Amino acid sequence: RLPTEAxxxxxxxxxxxxxxxxxxxxxxxxxVAWHSGNAGSTTHIVGAKSPNELGLYDMSGNVFEWCWDxxxxxxSTTQTNPTGASSGSYRIGRSSSWKYxxxxxxxxxxxxxxxxxxxxxxxxxxxxxxxPTTENPNGILYSNDFSTNPNWNTNNSSRYFWNSSVQAYxxxxxxxxxxxxxxxVDYSGDSFRYTVDIKPTERDTGDVCFGLFDANKNSNxxxxxxxxxxxxxxxxxxxxYAVSQTGSTCVSAEGTMQLNKWHSITxxxxxxxxxxxxEVKRDSQSVLSWSGTISGGFSSxxxxxxxxxxxxxxxxxxxxxxxxxxxxxxxxxPLYKQTFDENVFADSSWSRTNSSIxxxxxxxxxxxxxxxxxxxxxxxxLSSLNLNFPLVIQSRMRLTAGGRNYLLPCLSIFPTTxxxxxxxxxxxxxxxxxxxxxxxxxxxxxxxxxxPLPAEGTWATVVATIRTDGGTLSVQLDGQxxxxxxxxxxxxxxxxxxxxxxxxxxxxxxEISYVSVGVx
Length: 520
Hints:
Structural class: mainly beta
Helix content: under 10%
CATH architecture of the largest domain: Sandwich
Largest sheet: 8 strands, antiparallel
Strand content: 35-45%
């Protein structure tokens, strides 16, 4: 999305690292900005001037930058993170451009533009991120096992309530279509995944719907945004129903439901591809697995998670009563991701034991070379994020020069303050690596599968799902359409995750483009 005007100015001024400069990164306008006095009547490639305190380039000058806000007067009262006027004819433009004199490059200057401007106007994209904290580990937007009363808001408390005897949330017989019970969630419009366990207990004349809703909280219409799972129908069945911000609908295939059986349901939405999917399992067996595209996607209006009743049907046979348990809504975006550029070691975000581990600034990859001994390593401290297991750790790497024993570096996690190499002092943490002798390994030297091993120069995307009691490993080589499951191991480790790092191979050179940590 486009940044709001407030977000743009906060970033241009240097955020929390601001030095109070007049322009974005300096009081010397020529050091940071292209303007009519130095641009030569044309735009320039991004990054040719110095960055500001946050490492952002061209926040002053070169081209104006669209903001999300409609143009309008500032509020007369103090505001935090405002979003501008509710309507207007022009959008805010910030930064100034090559057409205007130096004084217009101030970080406080406001402009406004219509959709026909082109030769002096550009964009700078922004994305909402869920930042894990002690109160919000692993980017969880909402989680409840109903061991205590969740106090959901409802328009019919006789129909929706916490069932203390079974420690689950109950839906009961109803008289009004559109009855609901929900809890507000801080959904940003980005990707989401929600999981829920549902047990139908009685069939009557309605449908139980669980999911994300806008402020209408109404599953019984095609208006408003929603993404919910419906339990009902004459069969009876379960399926996914969604309405996007543009009014487009998406309906999945149907799976069969059974009375008095728990069904584990997962709904996942990717805001980049607009793909939405549903997986339903009963007794650990899949009864529905489906994915499709929801045109237009969702806005940030899906602010309520809960249950809503659909329909007032004349014939019986539909689910009417159900128990709801183990609800969770998370952001599946990486909670931590590191790409490798010249700042990785310069700003001390990563540490290393030897310069044989270095960044190739031309390719933006971390290159790890043999150094005559096995023991050099590089790592970062993630303890401040309080990342609790389970986690998904992903890295993209490739072998670039020979070596028969260890083809790729060992990627390790450390749930203690120590940093040890593989096999050293009992090898704390979980490690995976491929070798000619052992194949792909996860956690121990006893579980392996020899294929697929990457050829020299072939990138491999490696994904490890790490739990406290074990984990699984999959690998997808470039050119393969799907990943291959290559290892599974059991262990006993504690959380939270403290450090993440790579250990040096014995006799090969390899490159790593990124490493990320996310939620399963």
